[in-house]
Design brief:
The protein is mainly β and 577 residues long. Helices cover 6% and strands 42% of the residues. The strands form six sheets. It has a 21-stranded mixed sheet that branches. Strands 6, 9, 17, 19, 24, 27, 36, 39, 40 and 44 form a ten-stranded mixed sheet that branches. Strands 2, 11, 12, 13, 14, 15 and 16 form a seven-stranded mixed sheet that branches. The radius of gyration is 24 Å and the shape is globular.
Length: 577
């Protein structure tokens, strides 16, 4: 049956920020129909429950307020929208497709009722890099919860980045492009007494890892401040991720436009994967729009919003077959454009019991993982007896041996949890000094194995060795004919064995990377092979040393050919030296 339904120390700097109104002329494109999102949610739930093959959604604006739109446990089901269907969310919520097979979600626009970041204009730039700017309190009200939370205390050891919450980005007022890419991280903020009806002033200390140019030379430079890892509160559904797919396979996301992202915009994690994204556009609005909610409130989405997503544009982790991203656009992200990887777990303690060795292993979280919203997407959650384990040395990623899982279970032993709670500080302190850049949680498993290395007497593992499950690597991703541009950080990490990256355009961001250069983010796999990078164009990326980095120590059989690289009109060799 078919239903038809209407319906955003190195160098330390002091920043005093005040933000002026950036949008004085709004063009009203008010839709003729507005609906509460709950109505659409109920229609989708009913269609799935009754075994329908599709649901057609026509016309109008659907307001979800403090809830996500969830499509769960469906198979062979299609939700079809049209160009004039917009799903409106508040920061922290979005679309969540969970536990689905052969589900298609097509023809929707996704936006946020308020931007998920603060934006303004620099009015004065002093030396040493003391900036006064006006933050627009009308068109850019502070998102739900404080945008500028108090900083976390620094860890006992490890990088200070762990205690920093927000990023500062400077924008050219003429091109509306990022002036300096890289981490400009806020370490503390104090509100000053300059506050009016339309603006608010903050005193901001931030850590700068590369901003060398004088802001004076830009004149009226624009500024955004956004949470470093986005806005991550919600119902436990999408949890801040704008478009989230978990534990699903063979889904199709087609002709979807996203004008905002509270955290990462498009995220998939867990399950077989093999998901396709075609005609997906993460971009700014061309023109402003104003709509009226069912309760009579006015909502404006401005074309002058500089950021589209607070963090990564597209992030895939812990799927068994990587994504296919085809004929799409990923732009204006507050971190990387695209990352594809698995996760590496951390060995805590080994035990020897005759021929059945075992260990406590932390099933690691990551700031790039949807596990806070779906624990089942993690590596050991998906591991089963019979899976192969590979062990790797911390920091060097040297191989230590292989084994086959005979049994595993989650444990809550007091000693195990004590070791796990101390692990972050311990692993970042001598003699390990691993420089892990984020908390990795305390989910501990007891894993038993048998040795599969016939040429070895045993496995040379010890505390804090890294653990990988090859079956759970994101194999065979396809990134084809997609436009990536204007990113705060890199074009991406392509750690997908068998991947094809072909005929894409990359503009304005840091280079792309294949293979791990370290383990600071615990993103695997620790070894990547058979990747083809061909026919791509890279323009104005932030490195003359090369636009495509393949680590020779952690990769093999990488084909890089027929790519074009240019910076300011000058051709460069694409391959890093």
């Amino acid at each position: 049956s078919v239903y038809t339904f209407k319906m955003a120390q190195p160098l330390r700097a002091l920043v005093v920020v005040v933000v002026s109104c950036l949008c004085l002329h709004l063009h009203s494109t008010t839709a003729s129909n507005t609906y509460p999102g709950q109505t659409l949610q109920e229609k989708i739930d009913n269609a799935i429950r009754e075994g329908s093959s599709s649901l057609s959604v026509t016309g109008g604006d659907y307001f979800f307020y403090n809830m996500s739109l969830v499509v769960s446990f469906a198979s062979e089901f299609t939700v079809i929208g049209s160009e004039d269907v917009t799903l409106w969310f508040t920061c922290g919520y979005g679309v969540h497709i969970d536990g689905c097979r052969d589900v298609s979600f097509q023809g929707f626009t996704i936006d946020y009722m308020n931007p998920c970041f603060a934006q303004g204009t620099v009015t004065q730039a002093d030396t040493p890099l003391s900036v006064r700017a006006a933050f627009d309190a009308v068109n850019f009200p502070l998102p739900q919860g404080p945008l500028f939370p108090p900083p976390l205390p620094p860890p006992k050891s490890g990088p200070p980045i762990s205690g920093i919450k927000c990023k500062v980005t400077f924008w050219d007022p003429n091109t509306l492009q990022i002036i300096e890419h890289g981490n400009h991280l806020i370490s503390s903020i104090t509100r000053t007494d300059v506050k009016t009806k339309d603006s608010v002033t903050y005193l901001v200390n931030f850590t700068n890892e590369g901003l060398q140019k004088s802001l004076d030379s830009y004149g009226g430079v624009l500024i955004t401040i956004h949470p470093r890892l986005g806005i991550e509160h919600g119902t436990g559904k999408a949890g801040g991720l704008t478009y989230l797919i978990t534990n699903s396979s063979n889904t199709v996301s087609k002709n979807i436009t996203l004008y905002g992202g509270a955290t990462e915009a498009i995220v998939e994690g867990g399950g077989r994967g093999n998901n396709t994204y075609q005609g997906v556009r993460l971009r700014r609005r061309d023109t402003p729009t104003t709509v009226t909610t069912p309760s009579g409130n006015t909502v404006s989405s401005l074309a002058t919003r500089l950021l589209v997503a607070n963090a990564d544009g597209f992030h895939s982790s812990c799927v068994r077959i990587g994504p296919s991203l085809i004929e799409s656009e990923i732009s204006f992200t507050g971190d990387d454009a695209l990352n594809i990887h698995s996760r590496m777990s951390i060995l805590l303690k080994t035990f020897t019991d005759g021929d059945s060795p075992s260990a406590w292993i932390i099933d690691t979280l990551g700031s790039s993982s949807p596990a806070d919203y779906h624990e089942s997407t993690l590596m050991l959650e998906q591991t089963v007896p019979g899976d192969e384990l590979e062990f790797w040395a911390i920091r060097t990623l040297n191989p230590l041996g292989k084994a086959k899982v005979t049994a595993l279970k989650r444990v809550y032993d007091a000693e195990a949890l004590k070791l796990a709670n101390a692990a972050f500080d311990d692993i970042n302190a001598p003699p390990y000094s691993a420089h892990i850049g984020h908390d990795f949680g305390t989910r501990v498993w007891l894993v038993n194995w048998t040795i599969t290395n016939s040429d070895m007497l045993g496995i040379n593992v010890s505390k804090f060795s890294l653990v990988d499950v090859p079956r759970l690597r994101p194999w065979n991703s396809r990134i084809i004919n997609t436009h990536f541009h204007d990113h705060y950080m890199r074009f991406g990490l392509f750690d997908s064995p068998g991947a094809v990256i072909h005929d894409n355009l990359f503009e304005r961001g840091f280079p792309m990377y294949i293979g791990e250069s370290g383990d600071g983010w615990l993103e695997g796999p620790p070894f990547v092979n058979n990747v083809t990078v061909e026919g791509n164009t890279l323009i104005d990326y932030v490195s003359k040393a090369g636009g495509i980095f393949a680590n020779p120590l952690t990769t093999a059989d990488i084909t890089i050919m027929n790519n074009k690289c240019m910076i300011n009109g000058t051709k460069y060799d694409c391959t890093a030296k």
